[in-house]
């Protein structure tokens, strides 16, 4: 009997999907975020108020408002409440990131992916610093926090850029909130410095206000996407999959989340994103029929969006900026590399001829060379060859490094001049951004460019990383898609540009523009290549325990921000079709800034320098463009770099007139002449008679909107990075003396030979090591003013001050025309003054007189660098002035640390007797006859030890260190007779806290540390304290 097959029962109708407006997600995210922070703040204040407002400087009532980190990460239960709520917030947060990508993916295909990446990194790093507190892992917490803030730059500016033009409300709110966000960072940094560096009670509370403001502004910014979602009528549907062709044959229904437009949308803008799913109208039973064609089309579109790269133009842009950075690094490395030989010979050595390498643009006059340089193969080949200047770090001999760097500059300057002659605005912007990046890299690396050949991995270099990135950039340039058929336009010259029809204009005068460009190159290099240079121009010391003006390691980021703002002005001017070189008023404003920098000190002078910085960076793209299109490219760019070379020589003559022939008598101590010449040359590029620029290629290529956006974003990243670097480099605590309880301190003097060791490398870290090992509390460094192109525009004190913790007085600046003197102190500097000692014949001699708070006792310290043996009149007059300064401080305890050039006990008019007798001072050891240059004198203190340490490879001069004991507060010095002062003892006769490091015992055949050892006496000398000394 045949069996009957039963028909399959009908499947139950799937439930209708749950749908809601997408802007609800934004609201939920905002509520949860605010609830997380508000809950932590409430419970923290309610349960642990005095604990969370207390910090390493002060507590309640000086500090009365908690910081974000103390509120969310230190105590139970507020920490746990916060972390639970933040975990719940992560879902809506990720959803908002993907929704913003969805809204922008068709209008801005390239930026939407970058925005998605930034949003994801921002969210993940937020989770990192929330769940890894500073108490768990301080470094990881800081790195993740810095990453989060950096990601806010592309997230916020990218959000503004991708907001539809018709969404006026959202765009306006994003601009206002992002501006307030980044503006709040400046006062936050200021109060953080007041708290961390100067230890001012109450400063951390003010810092906390701005820290909480950043949190609120950050949440407010993310809430704006709710407006975008509301205007686009997006709805989220959660329910059964619509991917069902025949529900009776499909045994697996897959649940998925889909996003679709609300069915009540009346109209659709052409730029609005398409629906992900195309569906028919609902059926009578309320179900939605399946559309296979719509799904396949949507699937294909989604895969294409995921697989197709829309980021090539931004990547090419970043590669071009990095290669521009490499050019500026090579260009600025030439002078300090060749100066090594001049230092050791104290005169012209012949190696200075390497400077002629920057005149290679003369080869542009050879037509086929210029054409080849502008092809892709030529451009990549030349830039690849120029990397020899980066590889030079591996060469052991200074002469070989100089040859490699000179060769690299021949190639690099020739290639860069060829690019600048192309005639598009893109290369001008790239030149400015590359220069600003080089300045930032020095600020981040203790004033040393990390890819210079004079800086190796032992001295803070990142040469291998820099070289690898340069190779990657060249590979990208090699594989870059063509942008046209003209080889000059396809010469790996950057991302596509918007073309305008070029008119064939007659050749135009080039000489004045060439001279102006040469002056600009010199001005950028001399004044702006290191952010602390203009600060050193205005530095005058301390008053009432506070610095009179900005400090390089604390306020150098303001110079980077000024550079970035100048570039931003250039971008805005280009977009508006304006030419900065057509504004005579703008030139006058820039000149006024330079005048204020030169003629005023401290904050006023620094503000003038910032104004000048904005001016110079704003005209850089236009001035580069001004020479484009000339038929005399070889002559034009040769003249430009020849002008720069003359200004370099003039700058050297202002201070090295005693050692350099020609021009010394004319330009001796006349930086004002050089500065006037700089701006007079710059004025030649400005239009003074006719209403339109005399030679601006107005019909040249213009920047694409994406290039402008990338430039603005990079400018923001540079500015924010400079702030974050400053915060990262900030010492965790203020300077502290090495011995607090014994009332002992070490004071030393060292002539450091311009921070270049005997092998031609930067010596900052070698100096740091010996100062740290010897526990020197007060150090005088001579030949320390490096803020000139020939010295590399470096700050010799940065590594020591930031890593070991010192108060710093930089001494007279580069505009004072000395070799430099600097004072480092573990003790607060109450007052300091700079002196230019009488020098009628030789070079100008610097000196610093400062009052230090040493264990509650005011101690005067004098640091000086006197003239050479060849100028006896200078040495006599200088010694009399120093003796006057020390005598006026009597009877206050005083220490003299100086470079004197005299024999011990030499009679007047030799410096020794003048300083000791007229200055009312004691020699640290009157029986040490083997001295010539460096001397330590003292009074009003107990001298307990004296050490002379060999120079090693750091310099040509030894280190001298004296150890002193400060009488107990309220007690005066007792038994100060010569016999008492000269009672020597072995180290075992003193407490171990008096001993110098044992590791430095040795000789030239072995022992010691890094080539340093106790020499002359082969041991430190120790002295007995008077029996009735009160310490």
Automatic annotation (TrEMBL):
Membrane listed as a keyword: yes
Region of interest: Disordered: 253-288, 483-508
Gene3D superfamilies: Endonuclease/exonuclease/phosphatase
Domain PGAP2IP C-terminal nuclease-like: 743-978
Gene Ontology cellular component list: endoplasmic reticulum; membrane
GO biological process: fungal-type cell wall organization; GPI anchor biosynthetic process
Name this polypeptide is given: Calcofluor white hypersensitive protein
């Amino acid at each position: 009997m045949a069996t009957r097959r039963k028909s399959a029962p009908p499947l139950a109708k799937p439930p209708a999907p749950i749908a809601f407006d997408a802007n609800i997600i934004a609201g939920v995210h905002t509520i949860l975020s605010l609830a997380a922070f508000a809950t932590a703040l409430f419970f923290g204040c309610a349960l642990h108020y005095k604990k969370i407002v207390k910090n390493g400087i002060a507590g309640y009532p000086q500090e009365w408002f908690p910081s974000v980190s103390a509120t969310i990460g230190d105590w139970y239960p507020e920490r746990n409440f916060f972390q639970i709520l933040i975990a719940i917030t992560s879902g809506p947060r990720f959803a908002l990131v993907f929704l913003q990508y969805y809204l922008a993916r068709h209008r801005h295909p390239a930026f939407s992916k970058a925005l998605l990446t930034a949003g994801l990194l921002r969210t993940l790093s937020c989770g990192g610093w929330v769940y890894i507190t500073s108490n768990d892992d301080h470094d990881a917490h800081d790195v993740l926090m810095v990453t989060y803030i950096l990601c806010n730059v592309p997230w916020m500016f990218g959000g503004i850029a991708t907001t539809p033009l018709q969404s006026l409300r959202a765009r306006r709110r994003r601009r206002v909130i992002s501006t307030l966000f980044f503006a709040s960072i400046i006062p936050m940094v200021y109060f953080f410095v007041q708290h961390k560096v100067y230890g001012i009670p109450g400063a951390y509370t003010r810092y906390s206000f701005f820290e909480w403001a950043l949190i609120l502004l950050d949440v407010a910014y993310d809430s704006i996407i709710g407006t975008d979602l509301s205007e686009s009528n997006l709805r989220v549907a959660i329910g059964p999959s619509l991917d069902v062709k025949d529900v009776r044959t499909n045994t697996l229904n897959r649940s998925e989340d889909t996003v679709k437009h609300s069915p009540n949308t009346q109209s659709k803008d052409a730029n609005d994103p398409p629906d992900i799913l195309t569906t028919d109208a609902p059926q009578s039973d309320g179900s939605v029929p399946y559309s296979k064609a719509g799904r396949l089309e949507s699937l294909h579109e989604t895969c294409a969006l995921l697989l197709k790269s829309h980021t090539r133009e931004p990547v090419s842009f970043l590669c071009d900026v990095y290669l521009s950075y490499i050019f500026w690094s090579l260009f600025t490395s030439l002078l300090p590399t060749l100066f090594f030989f001049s230092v050791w010979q104290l005169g012209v050595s012949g190696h200075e001829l390497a400077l002629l390498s920057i005149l290679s643009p003369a080869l542009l006059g050879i037509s086929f060379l210029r054409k080849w340089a502008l092809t892709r193969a030529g451009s990549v080949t030349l830039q690849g060859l120029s990397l020899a200047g980066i590889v030079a770090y591996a060469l052991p001999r200074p002469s070989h490094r100089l040859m490699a760097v000179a060769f690299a500059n021949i190639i690099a300057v020739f290639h860069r001049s060829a690019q600048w002659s192309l005639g598009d605005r893109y290369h001008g912007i790239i030149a400015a951004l590359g220069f600003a990046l080089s300045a930032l890299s020095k600020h981040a690396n203790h004033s040393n460019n990390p890819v210079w050949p004079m800086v190796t991995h032992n001295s803070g270099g990142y040469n291998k990383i820099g070289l690898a990135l340069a190779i990657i950039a060249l590979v990208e340039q090699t594989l870059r898609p063509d942008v046209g058929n003209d080889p000059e336009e396809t010469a790996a010259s950057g991302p596509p540009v918007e073309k305008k029809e070029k008119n064939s204009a007659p050749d135009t005068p080039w000489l004045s523009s060439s001279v102006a460009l040469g002056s600009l190159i010199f001005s950028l290099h001399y004044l702006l290549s290191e952010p602390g240079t203009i600060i050193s121009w205005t530095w005058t010391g301390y008053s009432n325990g506070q610095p009179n003006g900005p400090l390089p390691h604390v306020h150098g980021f303001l110079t980077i921000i000024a550079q970035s703002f100048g570039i931003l002005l250039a971008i805005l001017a280009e977009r508006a079709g304006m030419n900065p070189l057509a504004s005579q008023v703008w030139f006058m404003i820039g000149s006024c800034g330079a005048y204020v920098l030169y003629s005023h000190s401290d904050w006023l002078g620094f503000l003038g320098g910032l104004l000048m910085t904005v001016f110079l960076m704003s005209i850089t793209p236009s001035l580069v463009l001004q020479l484009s299109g000339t038929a005399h490219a070889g002559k034009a760019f040769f003249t430009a770099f020849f002008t720069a070379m003359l200004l370099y020589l003039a700058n050297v003559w202002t201070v090295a007139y005693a050692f350099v022939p020609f021009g010394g008598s004319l330009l001796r101590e006349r930086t004002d002449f050089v500065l006037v010449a700089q701006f007079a040359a710059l004025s030649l590029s400005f239009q003074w008679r006719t209403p339109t620029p005399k030679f601006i290629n107005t019909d040249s290529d213009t920047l694409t909107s994406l290039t402008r956006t990338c430039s603005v974003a990079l400018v923001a990243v540079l500015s924010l990075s400079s702030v974050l670097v400053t915060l990262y480099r900030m010492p965790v605590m203020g300077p502290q003396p090495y011995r607090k309880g014994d009332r002992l301190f070490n004071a030393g003097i060292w002539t450091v030979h311009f921070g270049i060791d005997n092998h031609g490398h930067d010596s900052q870290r070698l100096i740091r090591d010996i100062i740290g090992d010897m526990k020197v509390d007060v150090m005088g460094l001579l030949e320390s003013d490096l803020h000139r192109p020939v010295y590399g525009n470096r700050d010799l004190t940065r590594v020591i001050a930031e890593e070991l913790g010192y108060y710093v007085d930089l001494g007279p600046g580069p505009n004072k025309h000395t070799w430099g003197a600097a004072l480092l102190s573990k003790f607060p500097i109450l007052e300091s003054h700079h002196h230019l000692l009488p020098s009628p014949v030789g070079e100008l001699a610097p000196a610093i007189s400062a009052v230090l708070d040493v264990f509650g006792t005011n101690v005067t310290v004098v640091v000086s660098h006197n003239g050479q043996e060849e100028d006896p009149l200078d040495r006599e007059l200088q010694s009399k002035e120093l003796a006057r300064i020390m005598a006026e401080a009597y009877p206050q305890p005083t220490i003299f640390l100086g470079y004197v050039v005299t024999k011990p006990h030499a009679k007047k008019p030799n410096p020794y007797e003048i300083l000791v007798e007229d200055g009312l001072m004691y020699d640290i050891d009157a029986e040490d006859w083997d001295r010539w240059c460096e001397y330590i004198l003292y009074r009003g203190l107990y001298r307990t030890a004296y050490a002379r340490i060999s120079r090693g490879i750091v310099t040509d001069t030894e280190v001298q260190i004296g150890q002193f004991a400060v009488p107990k507060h309220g007690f005066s010095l007792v038994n100060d007779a010569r016999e008492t002062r000269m009672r020597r003892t072995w180290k075992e006769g003193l407490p171990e806290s008096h001993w110098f490091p044992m590791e430095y015992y040795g000789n030239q055949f072995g022992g010691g540390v890094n080539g340093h050892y106790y020499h002359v006496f082969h041991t430190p000398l120790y002295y007995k304290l008077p029996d009735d000394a009160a310490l």
